Amino acid sequence: MNRLLTAALGLAPLALLLALWQAATTGGWYTSVLLPPPIEVARVFGAQWPDLLRHVGASLTRVCVGLAIACITAIPLGLMIGRFKWLDQITDWTIQIFRSLPGIALIPLAILFFGIGDKPAIILITLAAFWPLIISTIFGVKSVERTLLKVARVARAGDALVLRDILLPSALPSILTGLRLAAGAGWLTVVTAEMMAVKSGLGYYIMYAQTTFRAEEIIAGIVTIGAIGLLFDQGIRLLRHRICRWQEGLVLES
Amino acid sequence: MSLLELDAVSKTYRRGQEVVQALDSVSLSAGFGEFICLLGVSGCGKSTLLQILAGLEPADSGAVQIEGQPIAGGHPNASVVFQEHGLFPWMTVERNVEFNMKARGVGAAERRSVARDFINRVGLAGFERRYPHELSGGMRQRVGIARALTTRPRLLLMDEPFGALDAQTRSIMQNQLLDLWQDYRATVVFVTHSVDEAVFLADRIVIMSPRPGRVRSIVPVALPRPRDRADPAFGQCVGEVLGLIHDDLRHLMGA
Ligand SMILES: Nc1ncnc2c1ncn2[C@@H]1O[C@H](COP(=O)(O)OP(=O)(O)OP(=O)(O)O)[C@@H](O)[C@H]1O
Ligand SMILES: [Mg+2]
Predict the structure, then answer these.
(1) Distance (Å, rounded) from C-alpha B84 to C-alpha A197?
(2) Which residue ranges make up each domain of chain A?
(3) Checking phi first, is residue B7 left (phi over 0); if not, alpha (psi -120 to 50) or beta?
(4) Where are the alpha helices (DSSP H) in chain A?
(5) φ/ψ of residue B61, rounded to 5
């Protein structure tokens, strides 16, 4: 399928939504104070873009730092847990318990411990990203083909080589799927956390717009969040495409 | 001294209540450079025997020695070619062929040049950068064989390596394997279902019978090499081996 068609297909529902929105405002379904027309929102982007950009920068930085910390910790840990059964037995229940705690529930605790600022936000993002990453890493390692481990054993490959040349690449597609989930979770968390725990970022921008009763700014913030979420996801897909070239033709495109 | 010595090797698998005696007191010896085929119906313990020789499974009792050394956790002078070829899908042909050397700590430059040699030798020059899924079944098997040979094994273990190939590719691969065997001299233990394949390849055919897995008889194949399937002596040998196996089947069916 060619690129243009793909883009057209992907944009079609969004265009429909925009048309509905426009119709709703011209038809006067809601007062324009509550639901400003699209052009008003576009004006916000025109007038406030330096400010918006600053908030985007703040949110993105937090998400990236949080994701990075989560990757550095969850991936090696997941590789070890997937490899060694006894580690799996020790950690299994704990992981299942902690991963089902919603990050939002931890916000008050994080603020109590770390005050208002970057720290609680980044910690919450790290936590939100950690669980999908570690679970998909463990799953990836466990689903390695048995024959390949036999090949390694007959070749007398050491643990380090098995981890680096067999388990990691074998788990990589699964890890990248985990990363997509983690990025989504991180992005959700940052906006929520910024509504309470920090004084910058898109979440803060939206909350502030609400207190000043500027619906067009709230919507501009939401549109920005959605756009960045999409870019993030596309970026990780591209990464997966690059790193997992060997998978082409083996699995359905995702 | 023989290269390979098995003395009364037994192996039982237990899965819950179910107990399967995969091998019952199997004894066998092979000299250096000998080509042995393990032949027998499904479930007679051929793969189990090979796994024990590879050090992948322990025997319950009995002794296994390679060059006078008891094997434990694999032998440095043995290589294995697996049925599903066991190639790493994320490595190119070149990297796959290098793997066994890498595991033994051979330096990158030497690995590369040895790998190139073997890739050329099995006729895969130009495919170094391909991934396994971009190759045909026969080509994948050749990669597996090249990888197994890079460490110059004295014992080469092959579990139905050509089982999944079409008849024509299979015959080409058999000839190529014999060429390589002439050049690199190793004791080969080759598992197969095919009587024709066993007679074409083997110095000796070890016929196994199931439940429990035992060595039923050992048939030396004295035909001169290169062997010709059209030769009446070839057909006679195939008939003789088939007869032995059919006796087994009849016995199994309780007739
Ligand atoms: N890991 C295992 N656990 C339990 N039983 C096993 C295991 N491996 C093999 N067996 C059993 O041991 C017996 C011998 O199996 P083996 O795979 O050695 O036979 P085979 O001769 O290689 O058969 P085939 O020609 O079908 O490959 C079979 O009955 C099989 O079910
Ligand atoms: Mg088998």
Answers:
(1) 55
(2) 39-244
(3) beta
(4) 3-26, 38-83, 85-99, 103-114, 118-142, 146-154, 159-161, 168-196, 202-211, 215-243
(5) -150, 170
Question: Could you give the ipTM of this predicted complex?
Answer: 0.87
Q: Which residues contact A132 (CB under 8 A, 6 or more apart)?
A: A99, A178, A181, A182, A185
Measured between alpha carbons, how far is B56 from B58 in angstroms, rounded to an integer? 7
For A190-198, what is the mean pLDDT? Answer: 87
Which three-class secondary structure string do you get for B73-96? CCCCCEEEECCCCCCCCCCCHHHH
In this predicted structure, what is the pLDDT of residue A219?
Answer: 92
Which letter, b or e, does each residue of A111-126 get, where b requires 16 or more Cβ atoms within 10 Å of its Cβ?
Answer: beebeeebebbbbbbb
CA distance A171 to A153: 19
Phi and psi (nearest 5°) for B26?
A: -90, 125
Is the Cα dihedral A197, A200, A204, A208 positive or negative? positive
Q: Is B172 in the pocket of ligand 1 (CB under 6 A)?
A: no
Least distant ligand from the CA of B49: 1
Sign of CA dihedral B92, B93, B94, B99: positive
Separation of alpha carbons B134 and A249, rounded Å: 8
Amino acid B131: pLDDT: 92
What is the distance between the alpha carbons of residues B162 and B173, in angstroms, rounded to a whole number? 8
pLDDT tens digit sequence for B128-164: 999 999 999 899 999 999 999 999 999 999 999 998 8
Cis peptide before B226 (omega within 30 of 0): yes
Paired sense of beta strands B35-39 and B187-192, if any: parallel
Q: Per-residue pLDDT for A68 more than 70?
A: yes
CA dihedral of residues A162, A168, A169, A171 (deg, nearest 10): 120
Distance from CA of B76 to the nearest CA of A (A): 8
Yes or no, beta carbons of B86 and A170 under 8 Å apart: no
How far apart, in whole angstroms, are the C-alpha atoms of residue B236 and residue B245? 14
CA of A168 to the centre of ligand 2 (A): 29
Cα–Cα–Cα angle for A191, A205, A181, nearest 5°?
Answer: 20
Nearest by CB to B103, which of A147, A156, A245?
A156
- Structure confidence at residue A27 (pLDDT): 85
- CATH, domain A39-244, list 1.10.3720.10, 3.40.228.10, 1.20.120.160, 1.10.10.10: 1.10.3720.10
Between strands B35-39 and B18-30, the pairing is: unpaired
- List, in sequence order, every residue forming a beta bridge with B19; answer none if it has no partner: B14
In tens, the pLDDT along B150-205 reads 999 999 999 999 988 899 999 999 999 999 999 999 999 999 999 999 999 999 99
User: Would you give the DSSP letter of residue A251?
Assistant: B
Q: What residues 148-167 of chain A have any CB closer than 8 A to a CB of chain B?
A: 148, 150-158, 161, 165-166
